[in-house]
Amino acid sequence: MMADDSKPREGHFAALILARGGSKGIKLKNIKLLAGQPLISWVLRAAVDSGEFDSVWVSTDHDEIERIAIEWGAKVHRRAAETSRDQSTSIEAVHEFLRFHPEVNFIAQIQCTSPCLHPWHLQGPCRMIRHEGYDSVFAVSRRHLFRWKEVTTRGEVTDPENLNPAKRPRRQDWNGELYENGSFYFATRELLMQGLFQGGKVGYLEMGAEYSVDIDTDIDWPIAEQRVIKFGYFGKTKPQGVQLVVFAADGVLTDNMVHITASGEEFRSYNLSDSIGIQSLLSNGVTVRILSTEESVNHDKYAKQLKVPLVMGCRDKLSVIEQWRSEMGLEWTQIAFMGCDTPDIECLKRAGVSGTPADAQPSVLTASHFISKLNGGRGAVRDFCEYVQLVMEKAKSAVEQEESNTTK
After folding, report:
1. Would you place residue 404 in the very low, low, confident or very high pLDDT band (cuts 50, 70, 90)?
2. What is the pTM of this model?
3. Which CATH architecture has domain 12-146+174-231?
4. Is 99 among the residues known to form the active site?
5. Which CATH number fits domain 244-399: 3.40.50.1100, 3.30.70.20, 3.40.50.1000, 3.20.20.120?
6. What is the pLDDT of residues 253-289, one digit of tens each?
7. Which end of the chain is more exposed for a tag (fewer CB within 10 A), N or C?
Protein backbone atom coordinates (compact mmCIF):
# COMPACT_ATOMS: atom_id res chain seq x y z
CA MET A 1 0.00 0.00 0.00
CA MET A 2 1.41 3.38 -1.01
CA ALA A 3 1.20 6.23 1.46
CA ASP A 4 0.17 9.81 0.75
CA ASP A 5 3.47 11.71 0.76
CA SER A 6 1.71 14.92 1.86
CA LYS A 7 1.00 13.73 5.39
CA PRO A 8 2.84 11.35 7.75
CA ARG A 9 1.69 7.80 8.21
CA GLU A 10 0.07 7.09 11.55
CA GLY A 11 0.58 3.84 13.41
CA HIS A 12 2.70 1.97 15.94
CA PHE A 13 6.38 1.73 14.93
CA ALA A 14 8.28 -1.05 16.71
CA ALA A 15 11.97 -1.88 16.71
CA LEU A 16 12.58 -5.63 16.84
CA ILE A 17 15.87 -7.41 17.54
CA LEU A 18 15.90 -11.16 16.96
CA ALA A 19 18.21 -12.80 19.49
CA ARG A 20 17.77 -16.49 20.07
CA GLY A 21 20.02 -18.36 22.49
CA GLY A 22 21.41 -20.88 20.03
CA SER A 23 24.42 -19.95 17.92
CA LYS A 24 26.63 -22.41 16.09
CA GLY A 25 29.40 -19.92 15.37
CA ILE A 26 29.83 -18.29 18.80
CA LYS A 27 28.10 -19.59 21.95
CA LEU A 28 25.53 -17.07 23.27
CA LYS A 29 26.96 -14.58 20.80
CA ASN A 30 24.15 -12.08 21.31
CA ILE A 31 25.16 -11.34 24.91
CA LYS A 32 28.89 -12.02 24.74
CA LEU A 33 30.87 -9.00 25.92
CA LEU A 34 32.10 -6.72 23.14
CA ALA A 35 34.25 -3.80 24.37
CA GLY A 36 32.94 -4.42 27.87
CA GLN A 37 29.24 -4.56 27.02
CA PRO A 38 26.85 -7.31 25.89
CA LEU A 39 26.73 -7.39 22.09
CA ILE A 40 22.99 -6.76 22.04
CA SER A 41 23.38 -3.62 24.16
CA TRP A 42 25.04 -1.69 21.34
CA VAL A 43 22.01 -1.86 19.03
CA LEU A 44 19.51 -1.55 21.89
CA ARG A 45 21.04 1.72 23.02
CA ALA A 46 20.96 3.11 19.48
CA ALA A 47 17.30 2.08 19.05
CA VAL A 48 16.18 3.52 22.40
CA ASP A 49 18.14 6.76 22.01
CA SER A 50 16.88 7.33 18.47
CA GLY A 51 13.56 8.42 19.99
CA GLU A 52 11.73 7.18 16.89
CA PHE A 53 10.08 4.00 18.09
CA ASP A 54 6.86 3.49 20.01
CA SER A 55 8.35 0.31 21.44
CA VAL A 56 11.66 -1.57 21.35
CA TRP A 57 11.51 -5.36 21.51
CA VAL A 58 13.85 -8.32 21.76
CA SER A 59 12.53 -11.64 20.48
CA THR A 60 14.31 -14.46 22.31
CA ASP A 61 14.00 -17.95 23.73
CA HIS A 62 16.74 -17.48 26.37
CA ASP A 63 16.38 -16.32 30.01
CA GLU A 64 19.72 -14.53 30.23
CA ILE A 65 19.14 -12.65 26.97
CA GLU A 66 15.73 -11.65 28.31
CA ARG A 67 17.23 -10.32 31.55
CA ILE A 68 19.88 -8.26 29.77
CA ALA A 69 17.39 -6.94 27.21
CA ILE A 70 15.13 -5.63 29.98
CA GLU A 71 18.07 -4.00 31.77
CA TRP A 72 18.92 -2.13 28.57
CA GLY A 73 15.39 -0.79 28.16
CA ALA A 74 13.70 -3.29 25.84
CA LYS A 75 10.49 -5.27 26.10
CA VAL A 76 10.74 -9.01 25.54
CA HIS A 77 8.76 -11.33 23.29
CA ARG A 78 9.34 -14.96 24.27
CA ARG A 79 9.87 -16.84 21.05
CA ALA A 80 8.35 -20.29 20.57
CA ALA A 81 10.51 -23.37 20.10
CA GLU A 82 9.30 -23.67 16.50
CA THR A 83 10.84 -20.32 15.58
CA SER A 84 14.02 -20.81 17.62
CA ARG A 85 15.56 -23.69 15.68
CA ASP A 86 18.71 -23.41 13.59
CA GLN A 87 16.55 -23.83 10.51
CA SER A 88 14.09 -21.08 11.50
CA THR A 89 14.10 -18.00 9.30
CA SER A 90 13.94 -14.35 10.31
CA ILE A 91 10.63 -13.84 8.54
CA GLU A 92 9.09 -16.69 10.57
CA ALA A 93 10.19 -15.01 13.81
CA VAL A 94 8.82 -11.66 12.63
CA HIS A 95 5.49 -13.27 11.66
CA GLU A 96 5.20 -14.79 15.13
CA PHE A 97 5.85 -11.41 16.74
CA LEU A 98 3.26 -9.69 14.56
CA ARG A 99 0.63 -12.31 15.39
CA PHE A 100 1.06 -11.54 19.09
CA HIS A 101 1.18 -7.76 18.50
CA PRO A 102 -1.65 -6.66 16.20
CA GLU A 103 -1.11 -3.04 17.30
CA VAL A 104 2.18 -2.85 15.37
CA ASN A 105 1.98 -1.24 11.91
CA PHE A 106 5.68 -0.87 11.05
CA ILE A 107 8.74 -2.84 12.09
CA ALA A 108 12.42 -2.00 12.11
CA GLN A 109 14.15 -5.35 12.29
CA ILE A 110 17.61 -4.51 13.64
CA GLN A 111 20.47 -6.96 13.43
CA CYS A 112 21.95 -7.75 16.84
CA THR A 113 25.39 -8.33 15.29
CA SER A 114 25.75 -4.78 13.92
CA PRO A 115 27.26 -3.00 16.94
CA CYS A 116 28.32 0.22 15.18
CA LEU A 117 24.76 1.45 14.61
CA HIS A 118 24.05 5.01 15.73
CA PRO A 119 20.63 6.56 16.41
CA TRP A 120 20.81 8.62 13.20
CA HIS A 121 21.16 5.42 11.17
CA LEU A 122 17.68 4.51 12.39
CA GLN A 123 16.11 7.97 12.37
CA GLY A 124 16.53 8.37 8.61
CA PRO A 125 14.67 5.19 7.60
CA CYS A 126 11.90 5.96 10.11
CA ARG A 127 11.32 9.32 8.42
CA MET A 128 11.36 7.63 5.01
CA ILE A 129 8.63 5.21 6.12
CA ARG A 130 6.47 7.73 7.98
CA HIS A 131 6.91 10.90 5.90
CA GLU A 132 8.15 9.91 2.45
CA GLY A 133 5.83 7.03 1.61
CA TYR A 134 8.39 4.22 1.53
CA ASP A 135 7.13 0.71 2.26
CA SER A 136 10.56 -0.75 2.96
CA VAL A 137 14.02 0.62 3.71
CA PHE A 138 17.21 -1.36 4.29
CA ALA A 139 20.89 -0.73 5.01
CA VAL A 140 23.59 -0.86 2.35
CA SER A 141 27.31 -0.17 2.19
CA ARG A 142 29.45 0.71 -0.80
CA ARG A 143 32.16 -1.65 -2.01
CA HIS A 144 34.81 -1.23 -4.66
CA LEU A 145 35.23 -4.89 -5.58
CA PHE A 146 35.63 -6.41 -9.02
CA ARG A 147 33.43 -9.47 -9.50
CA TRP A 148 34.30 -12.49 -11.67
CA LYS A 149 32.21 -15.45 -12.70
CA GLU A 150 32.68 -18.46 -10.45
CA VAL A 151 34.43 -21.45 -12.05
CA THR A 152 32.75 -24.74 -11.18
CA THR A 153 34.48 -27.24 -13.49
CA ARG A 154 38.16 -27.84 -14.18
CA GLY A 155 39.39 -26.01 -17.26
CA GLU A 156 36.46 -23.60 -17.35
CA VAL A 157 37.37 -19.98 -18.07
CA THR A 158 36.16 -17.13 -15.85
CA ASP A 159 34.80 -13.80 -17.12
CA PRO A 160 34.55 -10.36 -15.52
CA GLU A 161 31.06 -9.42 -14.34
CA ASN A 162 31.35 -5.75 -13.47
CA LEU A 163 34.43 -4.43 -15.24
CA ASN A 164 36.28 -4.25 -18.51
CA PRO A 165 39.85 -5.48 -17.85
CA ALA A 166 41.09 -3.37 -20.76
CA LYS A 167 39.77 -0.25 -19.02
CA ARG A 168 40.33 -1.13 -15.40
CA PRO A 169 39.12 1.92 -13.41
CA ARG A 170 40.96 3.55 -10.56
CA ARG A 171 39.12 3.44 -7.24
CA GLN A 172 38.65 7.21 -7.22
CA ASP A 173 37.12 7.09 -10.70
CA TRP A 174 34.56 4.42 -9.85
CA ASN A 175 31.57 4.82 -7.54
CA GLY A 176 31.60 1.15 -6.61
CA GLU A 177 28.46 -0.90 -5.96
CA LEU A 178 25.87 -0.99 -3.18
CA TYR A 179 25.48 -4.19 -1.18
CA GLU A 180 23.06 -5.08 1.60
CA ASN A 181 25.01 -5.09 4.85
CA GLY A 182 22.23 -6.66 6.93
CA SER A 183 22.23 -4.03 9.69
CA PHE A 184 18.48 -3.42 9.49
CA TYR A 185 15.31 -3.95 7.43
CA PHE A 186 12.35 -1.58 7.87
CA ALA A 187 8.99 -2.58 6.44
CA THR A 188 5.24 -2.21 6.80
CA ARG A 189 3.16 -4.89 8.45
CA GLU A 190 1.39 -5.67 5.17
CA LEU A 191 4.64 -6.30 3.37
CA LEU A 192 6.07 -8.49 6.12
CA MET A 193 2.93 -10.62 6.29
CA GLN A 194 3.45 -11.33 2.59
CA GLY A 195 6.83 -12.80 3.53
CA LEU A 196 8.81 -9.84 2.17
CA PHE A 197 11.38 -7.56 3.79
CA GLN A 198 11.62 -5.48 0.62
CA GLY A 199 8.81 -4.46 -1.68
CA GLY A 200 6.42 -1.67 -2.62
CA LYS A 201 8.25 1.64 -2.64
CA VAL A 202 11.77 0.50 -1.75
CA GLY A 203 14.50 2.73 -0.36
CA TYR A 204 17.88 2.32 1.29
CA LEU A 205 20.20 4.12 3.68
CA GLU A 206 23.88 3.98 2.82
CA MET A 207 26.14 3.37 5.81
CA GLY A 208 29.82 4.27 5.78
CA ALA A 209 32.28 1.39 5.76
CA GLU A 210 33.36 2.26 9.31
CA TYR A 211 29.84 1.51 10.60
CA SER A 212 29.19 -1.58 8.47
CA VAL A 213 30.21 -4.29 10.91
CA ASP A 214 28.82 -7.81 11.09
CA ILE A 215 29.85 -10.56 13.48
CA ASP A 216 29.42 -14.15 12.40
CA THR A 217 32.45 -16.12 13.62
CA ASP A 218 35.20 -15.80 16.24
CA ILE A 219 37.48 -14.32 13.59
CA ASP A 220 35.15 -11.31 13.31
CA TRP A 221 35.16 -10.57 17.04
CA PRO A 222 38.51 -8.79 17.60
CA ILE A 223 38.02 -6.75 14.42
CA ALA A 224 34.53 -5.74 15.53
CA GLU A 225 35.81 -4.83 19.00
CA GLN A 226 38.40 -2.44 17.60
CA ARG A 227 35.84 -0.96 15.21
CA VAL A 228 33.21 -0.40 17.90
CA ILE A 229 35.74 1.26 20.21
CA LYS A 230 36.50 3.78 17.49
CA PHE A 231 33.16 4.15 15.72
CA GLY A 232 30.50 2.73 18.08
CA TYR A 233 27.72 4.71 19.77
CA PHE A 234 28.38 5.15 23.48
CA GLY A 235 25.10 6.81 24.42
CA LYS A 236 23.88 10.26 25.23
CA THR A 237 26.47 12.26 27.14
CA LYS A 238 26.79 15.84 28.28
CA PRO A 239 29.09 18.07 26.22
CA GLN A 240 31.26 18.59 29.31
CA GLY A 241 31.55 14.82 29.75
CA VAL A 242 32.35 12.95 32.95
CA GLN A 243 33.41 15.23 35.80
CA LEU A 244 33.43 12.82 38.75
CA VAL A 245 34.56 9.18 38.93
CA VAL A 246 33.82 7.20 42.09
CA PHE A 247 35.29 3.80 42.94
CA ALA A 248 34.07 1.34 45.54
CA ALA A 249 37.20 0.22 47.38
CA ASP A 250 36.42 -3.34 48.39
CA GLY A 251 36.41 -5.79 45.47
CA VAL A 252 37.22 -3.04 42.97
CA LEU A 253 40.52 -1.53 44.06
CA THR A 254 41.26 -4.79 45.89
CA ASP A 255 40.60 -8.44 45.17
CA ASN A 256 38.20 -8.52 48.16
CA MET A 257 40.72 -10.55 50.15
CA VAL A 258 41.92 -9.55 53.64
CA HIS A 259 45.19 -11.21 54.65
CA ILE A 260 46.04 -11.62 58.34
CA THR A 261 49.64 -12.05 59.47
CA ALA A 262 50.72 -14.26 62.39
CA SER A 263 50.96 -11.14 64.56
CA GLY A 264 47.36 -10.20 63.78
CA GLU A 265 48.08 -7.41 61.31
CA GLU A 266 45.99 -7.25 58.15
CA PHE A 267 47.12 -6.30 54.70
CA ARG A 268 45.51 -5.97 51.27
CA SER A 269 47.00 -5.78 47.80
CA TYR A 270 46.49 -2.97 45.28
CA ASN A 271 47.31 -2.95 41.61
CA LEU A 272 49.93 -0.54 40.27
CA SER A 273 48.23 -0.46 36.88
CA ASP A 274 45.01 0.70 38.57
CA SER A 275 46.93 3.54 40.22
CA ILE A 276 48.26 4.65 36.83
CA GLY A 277 44.70 4.67 35.45
CA ILE A 278 43.46 6.86 38.31
CA GLN A 279 46.39 9.25 37.88
CA SER A 280 45.52 9.52 34.20
CA LEU A 281 41.98 10.63 35.09
CA LEU A 282 43.31 13.18 37.57
CA SER A 283 45.76 14.59 35.04
CA ASN A 284 42.82 15.15 32.66
CA GLY A 285 40.98 17.25 35.22
CA VAL A 286 38.55 14.56 36.39
CA THR A 287 37.70 14.43 40.10
CA VAL A 288 38.20 10.97 41.61
CA ARG A 289 36.86 9.75 44.97
CA ILE A 290 36.74 6.41 46.79
CA LEU A 291 34.01 4.87 48.96
CA SER A 292 34.54 1.99 51.37
CA THR A 293 32.01 0.18 53.53
CA GLU A 294 34.81 -0.77 55.92
CA GLU A 295 37.23 1.17 58.11
CA SER A 296 40.64 0.21 56.79
CA VAL A 297 44.09 1.64 57.49
CA ASN A 298 45.22 0.14 54.19
CA HIS A 299 42.55 1.99 52.20
CA ASP A 300 43.44 5.21 53.99
CA LYS A 301 47.14 4.89 53.13
CA TYR A 302 46.37 4.00 49.51
CA ALA A 303 44.02 6.98 49.08
CA LYS A 304 46.56 9.36 50.60
CA GLN A 305 49.24 8.03 48.28
CA LEU A 306 46.99 8.77 45.32
CA LYS A 307 45.89 12.10 46.86
CA VAL A 308 42.27 11.06 46.38
CA PRO A 309 39.50 11.71 48.97
CA LEU A 310 38.21 8.59 50.74
CA VAL A 311 35.04 8.04 52.76
CA MET A 312 35.15 4.93 54.96
CA GLY A 313 32.38 3.21 56.91
CA CYS A 314 29.97 4.23 54.14
CA ARG A 315 26.72 2.27 54.35
CA ASP A 316 24.72 4.48 51.99
CA LYS A 317 26.89 5.18 48.96
CA LEU A 318 24.02 6.63 46.97
CA SER A 319 23.42 9.39 49.53
CA VAL A 320 27.12 10.29 49.66
CA ILE A 321 27.40 10.53 45.88
CA GLU A 322 24.15 12.50 45.73
CA GLN A 323 25.64 15.01 48.18
CA TRP A 324 28.81 15.29 46.07
CA ARG A 325 26.70 15.71 42.95
CA SER A 326 24.77 18.57 44.53
CA GLU A 327 27.90 20.30 45.85
CA MET A 328 29.64 20.08 42.45
CA GLY A 329 26.54 21.10 40.48
CA LEU A 330 26.60 17.93 38.40
CA GLU A 331 23.98 15.74 36.78
CA TRP A 332 24.17 11.97 37.16
CA THR A 333 25.12 11.74 33.47
CA GLN A 334 28.41 13.44 34.42
CA ILE A 335 29.26 10.83 37.08
CA ALA A 336 30.98 7.50 36.54
CA PHE A 337 30.87 4.78 39.18
CA MET A 338 32.54 1.38 39.50
CA GLY A 339 31.22 -1.16 42.02
CA CYS A 340 31.11 -4.90 42.55
CA ASP A 341 28.46 -5.89 45.10
CA THR A 342 24.77 -5.43 45.85
CA PRO A 343 25.20 -2.16 47.87
CA ASP A 344 26.55 -0.63 44.65
CA ILE A 345 23.58 -1.44 42.39
CA GLU A 346 21.61 1.80 42.82
CA CYS A 347 24.73 3.89 42.17
CA LEU A 348 25.45 1.88 39.04
CA LYS A 349 21.92 2.42 37.76
CA ARG A 350 22.06 6.19 38.35
CA ALA A 351 25.54 6.87 36.99
CA GLY A 352 25.97 8.11 33.44
CA VAL A 353 28.85 5.65 33.03
CA SER A 354 28.93 2.53 35.18
CA GLY A 355 31.37 -0.35 35.41
CA THR A 356 32.20 -3.53 37.29
CA PRO A 357 35.11 -5.98 37.50
CA ALA A 358 34.68 -9.34 35.79
CA ASP A 359 34.20 -11.12 39.13
CA ALA A 360 31.40 -8.86 40.41
CA GLN A 361 28.14 -10.34 41.66
CA PRO A 362 25.76 -11.45 38.85
CA SER A 363 23.10 -8.87 39.74
CA VAL A 364 25.74 -6.15 39.65
CA LEU A 365 27.02 -7.26 36.25
CA THR A 366 23.50 -6.88 34.88
CA ALA A 367 23.15 -3.34 36.26
CA SER A 368 26.41 -2.13 34.75
CA HIS A 369 27.13 -0.71 31.30
CA PHE A 370 30.79 -1.73 31.22
CA ILE A 371 32.16 -5.07 32.42
CA SER A 372 35.92 -5.33 32.58
CA LYS A 373 37.65 -8.47 31.39
CA LEU A 374 39.77 -8.25 34.55
CA ASN A 375 38.96 -8.95 38.19
CA GLY A 376 38.90 -6.52 41.09
CA GLY A 377 42.42 -5.60 42.23
CA ARG A 378 43.78 -7.10 39.01
CA GLY A 379 43.55 -4.20 36.58
CA ALA A 380 39.77 -3.70 36.35
CA VAL A 381 40.07 -0.10 37.56
CA ARG A 382 42.65 0.73 34.87
CA ASP A 383 40.33 -0.88 32.32
CA PHE A 384 37.43 1.30 33.48
CA CYS A 385 39.55 4.46 33.54
CA GLU A 386 40.43 3.93 29.89
CA TYR A 387 36.77 3.29 29.07
CA VAL A 388 35.69 6.50 30.83
CA GLN A 389 38.24 8.52 28.88
CA LEU A 390 37.03 6.89 25.67
CA VAL A 391 33.45 7.94 26.47
CA MET A 392 34.69 11.49 27.14
CA GLU A 393 36.48 11.58 23.78
CA LYS A 394 33.31 10.35 22.07
CA ALA A 395 31.26 13.08 23.76
CA LYS A 396 33.74 15.73 22.65
CA SER A 397 33.77 14.42 19.07
CA ALA A 398 29.96 14.38 18.99
CA VAL A 399 29.79 18.01 20.08
CA GLU A 400 32.39 19.03 17.49
CA GLN A 401 30.48 17.15 14.79
CA GLU A 402 27.21 18.80 15.82
CA GLU A 403 28.85 22.25 15.74
CA SER A 404 30.33 21.45 12.33
CA ASN A 405 26.93 20.41 10.98
CA THR A 406 25.37 23.60 12.36
CA THR A 407 27.86 25.86 10.61
CA LYS A 408 27.50 24.12 7.22
Report:
1. low
2. 0.75
3. Alpha-Beta Complex (3.90)
4. no
5. 3.40.50.1000
6. 998 776 676 676 777 788 999 999 999 999 999 999 9
7. C
